[in-house]
Amino acid sequence: MIILTGGELTLDEVKRIVLDNEQVSLAKGAEETIRDNRKTIEKLISEKKTMYGINTGFGKFSDVVIAEDDLDDLQLNLIHSHACGVGDPFSEKISRAMLLLRANALIKGYSGVRPQLVNQFIDFLNAGIHPVIPQQGSLGASGDLAPLSHLALALLGEGEVFYQGKRMQATGALEDAGIVPLRLKAKEGLALINGTQAMTAVGVIAYFEMEKLLKQSELVAAMTLEGLNGIIDAFDHDLHQVRGHQEQIETAARIRSYLSDSNLTTRQGEVRVQDAYSLRCIPQVLGASWQTLNYAKEKLATEVNAVTDNPLIFSEEDKVVSGGNFHGQPIAFAMDFLKLGISETANIAERRIERLVNPQLNDLPPFLSPNPGLESGAMIMQYTAASLVSENKTLAHPASVDSIPSSANQEDHVSMGTIAARHALTMLQNARRVIAIELICAMQATEYRGVEKMASATREFYEKARTIVAGITKDRVFSPDIEDLADWLKNKEESEIKQKGGVLHE
């Protein structure tokens, strides 16, 4: 059970709640804080104070004053009109992350909602009810309005949800779970949808996946070094220490550790004096990719505990302040930066694939074919990797540099942060397939060199991967192999292999 305070949620706790379905509860005293904040709103309404989105319209309608009898309808109309998302739904884990992050923001007690609204989020999380939320439609600056409106629909017993492995109407899921649909009061609809929780939820999942992929890409690169009799001197500690980038130093250390007992690597001058950059510069490139990940981690760790509503209610001063905390620029930049790291992780891997299959660049069988000429071997796998890398280069274009005015130019600068985060996830899937192709080729090359000569760490990884994809003994349809290995890397390796002291152990 993880206790939510609104300000102390860690990324590790997000992972446990979202990926491991750990239960949650409100911190002691949280309901009182929320209730006190709600009383401030009710007091100001009774005093006929004009407050955006509470007793006015939204966006360009902010100058339209709403009658007190219509305030509840105003909030329901908001949710209905803003639920304009389109496209395939987000995954259940992203939907669950959105529930968690929006609840955590509301718990802090600046959004003017009632405790029962926050408890509705808690009940959904603990029952495993996850709203069906279309991926497309957010500008990432008035809050993630469209995605969060679809999330809000489910809390009201409307729309669709994922529940117990099925996609179904929310009414049925709430009835089965014994949860009463929420009825919105003044300010609560706006509080549900003003925020960056869609882009942040996608960003957090992208962070988790990228962290895993970078660890795996280092190990696969180490295996490629063995398949090409790579020069281990390029990973010397002193060489990397004098440059000073910590992530580069750590990547080099891990590669050295993985290959510490290998009989397939060489020293400079034994076979060649220097390797190509795609081998020699693994720490410099992957270390820089780790830097993009660390930057994203820093911004995400802040945003999961951020208040991104508008307006905000400060109870001690009886103050309602309209601002722009819903603007997603910090996360948009972070996701666009992360995309560069994803792109280059795959880019350099594709160049290593080329070195594994190109007979002009190695002494291995051409295209790792068991019968060159009659059989093409891994020739077209490199084509696929090149295609995926090229697609990633297109997706790496920053979404955050674009802006289209909305709401009759009232909302005239937007972040497109949710697009940036979505593109990052797509790029990760592409990159994972490239790493899977490199792994297939690296395994084939090390078999040619002699598996018994491999380092213990890479040999262990090789043996596990061989349970998923067999060696190339003749041409076959390789598409399922690539997909199966990519799926294995995504879903199984983290639980099956743990890192300790730079060497992988079960």
Automatic annotation (TrEMBL):
Known catalytic reactions: L-histidine = trans-urocanate + NH4(+)
Top enzyme category: lyase
Keyword annotations of the record: Cytoplasm, Histidine metabolism, Lyase
Pathway field: Amino-acid degradation; L-histidine degradation into L-glutamate; N-formimidoyl-L-glutamate from L-histidine: step 1/3
GO molecular function: histidine ammonia-lyase activity
Localisation: Cytoplasm
EC number(s) stated in the UniProt entry for this protein: 4.3.1.3
Gene3D superfamilies: Fumarase/aspartase (Central domain), Fumarase/aspartase (N-terminal domain)
Keyword Glycosyltransferase: no
Modified residues (2,3-didehydroalanine (Ser)): 142
A Pfam family hit: Lyase_aromatic
5-imidazolinone (Ala-Gly) cross-link, chain position(s): 141-143
Post-translational modification: Contains an active site 4-methylidene-imidazol-5-one (MIO), which is formed autocatalytically by cyclization and dehydration of residues Ala-Ser-Gly.
SUPFAM superfamilies xref list: L-aspartase-like
InterPro entries tied to this protein: Aromatic_Lyase, Fumarase/histidase_N, HutH, L-Aspartase-like, Phe/His_NH3-lyase_AS
Family, similarity comment: Belongs to the PAL/histidase family.
HAMAP family, A to Z: His_ammonia_lyase
NCBIfam families cross-referenced by the UniProt entry: hutH, PRK09367.1
Name of protein: Histidine ammonia-lyase
Gene: hutH
